[in-house]
Amino acid sequence: MSQQVLKSPIFAEIYQSLSLSLPLIVSNLVQSSSGFVATLMVARLGRDYLAAGALGFAIYIVLLVFLFGMFAAVGILVAQSYGANDIEGVRLSVVQGFLMAIILSVPAFILMRVLPRILSLADQNHHVIVLATQYLDALSWCFLPLSFLVIMEQFLIGISRTRLVLGISLLQVPFEILSTYAFVFGKFGLPVYGIAGLGYGFAAVFVVAAIFIALFIGFSKYSRDYHIFSRCWHINVKFFKELFRIGWPISVTNTIEVALMSVITFLMGHFGSSQLAAYQIARQFWILGMMIVFSIAQAATVRVGQAVGRGDKSTITLSAYVNMGIGFVLVVGFSLMYFIDPQQLIGIDIDPGNPYRVQLMHYAILFLSVAGIAQLLDNFRFIAVGALRGLKDTRFSMYVSFVVFWLIALPAAYILAFVLHLEGVGLWLGLVTGVACGAIILLLRFRWLVEHIDISTLLIKSD
User: Fold this and answer.
1) Which of 56, 257, 309, 447 ranks highest by number of CB atoms within 10 Å?
2) Where do the H-state alpha helices sit in 341-404?
């Protein structure tokens, strides 16, 4: 291959996008291992603890995805300011993000302590509610330090330092596992906290990690020139309002999608424990594949945002389509495992002595094959969302998510599952319908927006 071809814009974009996304993919997979190990710890405590963990996590994850959506706006503004070589704009974006973290963490903290008490009024096992309350009380201390960590991560992603994000994850996750182990089981001189130890363990590591990462950013040659910790209490109304304007639709979009998956889980339970268990097995592999897509979508947001900052319209389109291509290739490779040898894959989760093994395997293989198709389509939908976020077009994606998931996917899933009697497969196919519609609409939206928008109006300047 000639040097001229290798230096072409498309190969340059592939290199830049892979440099951003590959560390993020590994980082997200590493981070997920912490939660996986935490679940194993809770399983050792007993069935009620597992139930309490599931109940508590269902509340925690909704609040978490809402907050993370707001903080994603920090990465968008940082990327655009970085592309425009506006160092002060980068600083202001991060500083206002810190202020937003403080403001939003207070109601999140209160909700985590109030919601479990409300659950006690419902028809729930009293012991499970007590354990869930202890768990959420402990987890509530995570919000502020975790919010600071996410904002610093968004800063590093926005300035294209994703390898640092990976390095932080590789250092942080082992300490998360060690800390939660010590708090849950009372090791290294600590008292036994049980399920609450997960919250205390994570909170302790988040506080220490936030301090050390802040010191690293403040002194590292890669980031110290941005002075993101100077004048931290100064409110810049223009940047703060822009963060809120971009962030709240992302938060609502995240909540819409998480809530739909909860409804699908509930509906799956109508078809018996075998289909519900098979759904959980297929879903965990689907989530792993979506981590790849999520990471590439983050890279697309950054690349598009930086191109906006430079006023480079041609690179905006190139970045979006190159990242879709990268995602498609990687997801095809991941999804092939679902079709080539699904028994081996699913066998990881099914006890050989399980009397329902054959039935579980049958449903899991069916669900996994449909999940593979959904994953391929979601690659285009999600990366289109990421590209639109780089253009600050977050509200349209929110509307589309509501329409395609709640007005198309959910009714289609219900009809296919309950009316046409396709049961669990019908629920999955309903999701595929919504994902496909969303991908088409968002790709058309991106194409139209690039052709008609004046990108000079997107950049918010510090002066």
Assistant:
1) 56
2) 342-346, 357-390, 395-401
Q: From CA 423, how far away is CA 442, in angstroms rounded?
A: 29
CA 370 to chain centre: 22
Same domain, yes or no: 190 and 303: no
What is the rounded distance in angstroms from the CA atom of residue 327 to the CA atom of residue 382?
10
Answer yes or no: are the C-beta atoms of 145 and 208 closer than 8 Å: no
pLDDT digits (tens, 9 = 90+) for 129-147: 788 888 888 999 999 999 9
The one-character DSSP state at 231 is T
Q: Identify the domain containing residue 145 by its residue range.
A: 21-235
| 262, 58 Cβ separation under 8 angstroms | yes
**Reported confidence tier of residue 208, pLDDT bands at 50, 70, 90:** very high
Domain end residue (candidates: 235, 261, 285): 235
CA separation, residue 340 to residues 334, 336, 365 (Å): 11, 6, 11
Residue with tokens 């987890």: 139
Residues 295 and 436 reside in one and the same domain: yes
Average pLDDT over residues 36-41: 75
The answer to whether residue 4 scores a pLDDT higher than 60 is no
Burial class of residue 452 in the structure, from the number of CB atoms within 10 Å of its CB (0-12 exposed, 13-18 middle, 19+ buried)? exposed
